[in-house]
Amino acid sequence: MFEVMNAGLETAIQDYPGRVGYWNQGFPPSGPMDHWSFRLANVLVGNEPGDAALECQFTGPELRFHEDTVVAVTGGDMQPHIDGEPIELWRSYAVKAGQTLKLSYAKTGARGYIAVAGAIRTEPWLGSRATFHKAGVGGFEGRAIQAGQQIPTGDASGGTPDMVVIPEARPELPSDKRWEIEVVAGPNDDWLDEAGVRTFLEADWKLSAKSDRTGYRLEGPGDRLTFADKAINKRPEHGSEPSNIIDQGYPNGAINLAGLTPIILVKDGPSMGGFINPFTVPTSGFWKLGQVRPGEVIRFRAISVDEAQRLAREMTRICSRESLRPA
Amino acid sequence: MIYEEPRFLPGGDRYMLIEFGDEMNLELNFRGQDLANVVAEQKTKGVLETAPCFASTLIHYDPELISFADLKKEMASLIEGLRPADDIELPSRLFYFPTVYLDPWTKECVEDYIAKIAKKTPDPEYVAELNGLSGVDQLVRVHSGTEYWVASLGFWPGLPFTMPLDPRCRLVAPKYNPPRTWTPKGSVGMGGMSTAIYPEHLPGGYQVFGRTPVPIWDTEKRFPVFENSICLFRPGDRIRFVPCSIEEFEHVEAQVADGSYQYNLVEYQKFSVAQYKEWVAGIDETQRF
């Protein structure tokens, strides 16, 4: 068990891949935005990669441990300290009962991850401990953790202190605030014409501050996107705007063209709706959405389904004990 | 149009969208729902979950267990074996929803959007005009004059995507550009030819012109109708919006708050697609209410 001394900006319990199996009722997966850093945090302390751990946004929490355990911090650099002494990211540390782990603001990236040996053991909701903030379900009492809460954890005896993630297995954050993010064409890419596809892929898109865990709004040349004939001459039940389609299931990670504003549907995003999704961010590109900050620039790079699946497989291999060595 | 061959479209590395056609009708909706049901019954290897809607089914799969190409083959063969819609008879519940049309709450929401985000004709006037109605009063008559078929749940937990069963009540409308950042809980609105109820205070893209005080999802399961699921509706249910006054709305709202509200529904009745089609064939679709 650990106690929340200070919650940070928005720190929440997540697991991976989250709440899968309820898309037909409208429940999103939730779970960590940067699944790469999240999984490695767990692996470092001896947990399974998908076990429940903490996701911190922009400013991290302060936690006090009630028993001896092992912790690790990964992701964006939130300058972690144990009892006032700075510790390294991407490394596991033994902590004693009574010690505190304190994170500060993110010097790089947007999200930090804290894993604790034995993992967080709150009551699962619909099969997952992931927090779905807006609906007030999952996690601890359905929302971000709060100061004063006691968060239950599992048996820490299998914890693995003093391990590090080898440098080549760590995600690399750009130093110039420009991101290249993989996308796969579809499901509705043929609603744009060739010029529209080119405009989309060649543009600089800025992440809007009006973004949250349901959707990432992009600012850019949305009003210059051009459409194929099927988007214009179509049956009335689609709705008359070019981006309107008969309501359909949305892939998580889809880039939804809502009117002329692209919105990337992220972890707490909608399962269905009536706008086209010309592109989808696959697993291998999705982790970057956890670290890009509002105001930073995204360019999309189209890859094939096969390539996206190969990259995801490679990432799963990286997010394992293979990537650790003793400190 | 109903496609001769369904279209199998990729969504990233883990999704496949199967489109059966590009119109809104019961037959296509049954294709989508039936495929999802068959996949669930057969526990198709590698399929994690599905999301059927009006004319399509989205499949979430694990590419480590089944490739896109094999999933496509598997789905094509399951689709071959689906029953013809004309044979379908299913139990269907009918829910009555007290609804204040042209209510002050959605009006305020639309005015806020117009002031802060984009100029537009207020939603009820806009939908009435687009559909050649004499005004907002006729919009209320036409919109409340039919049962709505719950084709699927999605967007938000429990939100029903529905279509009008009476062809005389078909209305169409574009979706917002850009979408709203908020919509009052319980708002009733439409986009394309679909009508929905917003389960919570949420962003949205439908034209809104009514509001109901009756909850359609409940994580605390305060009412018996939520015994088996925290979402009220199931695909195949029907909804009727019953125009009511603000006083009635407030009365129901108070009953919901103190737990005494009784959901107004007709339990399972048999719904026959063949009979429905026969009824539709006898109707002059050009007539409005």
TrEMBL record, chain A:
<dbReference type="InterPro" id="IPR029000">
    <property type="entry name" value="Cyclophilin-like_dom_sf"/>
</dbReference>
<keyword id="KW-0067">ATP-binding</keyword>
<dbReference type="InterPro" id="IPR052708">
    <property type="entry name" value="PxpC"/>
</dbReference>
<protein>
    <submittedName>
        <fullName>KipI antagonist</fullName>
    </submittedName>
</protein>
<keyword id="KW-0378">Hydrolase</keyword>
<feature type="domain" description="Carboxyltransferase">
    <location>
        <begin position="24"/>
        <end position="318"/>
    </location>
</feature>
<dbReference type="GO" id="GO:0005524">
    <property type="term" value="F:ATP binding"/>
</dbReference>
<dbReference type="GO" id="GO:0016787">
    <property type="term" value="F:hydrolase activity"/>
</dbReference>
<dbReference type="Pfam" id="PF02626">
    <property type="entry name" value="CT_A_B"/>
</dbReference>
<dbReference type="InterPro" id="IPR003778">
    <property type="entry name" value="CT_A_B"/>
</dbReference>
<keyword id="KW-0547">Nucleotide-binding</keyword>
UniProtKB/TrEMBL annotation, chain B:
<dbReference type="Pfam" id="PF02682">
    <property type="entry name" value="CT_C_D"/>
</dbReference>
<protein>
    <submittedName>
        <fullName>Kinase A inhibitor</fullName>
    </submittedName>
</protein>
<dbReference type="GO" id="GO:0005524">
    <property type="term" value="F:ATP binding"/>
</dbReference>
<dbReference type="InterPro" id="IPR003833">
    <property type="entry name" value="CT_C_D"/>
</dbReference>
<keyword id="KW-0547">Nucleotide-binding</keyword>
<keyword id="KW-0378">Hydrolase</keyword>
<keyword id="KW-0067">ATP-binding</keyword>
<feature type="domain" description="Carboxyltransferase">
    <location>
        <begin position="6"/>
        <end position="233"/>
    </location>
</feature>
<dbReference type="InterPro" id="IPR029000">
    <property type="entry name" value="Cyclophilin-like_dom_sf"/>
</dbReference>
<dbReference type="InterPro" id="IPR010016">
    <property type="entry name" value="PxpB"/>
</dbReference>
<dbReference type="GO" id="GO:0016787">
    <property type="term" value="F:hydrolase activity"/>
</dbReference>
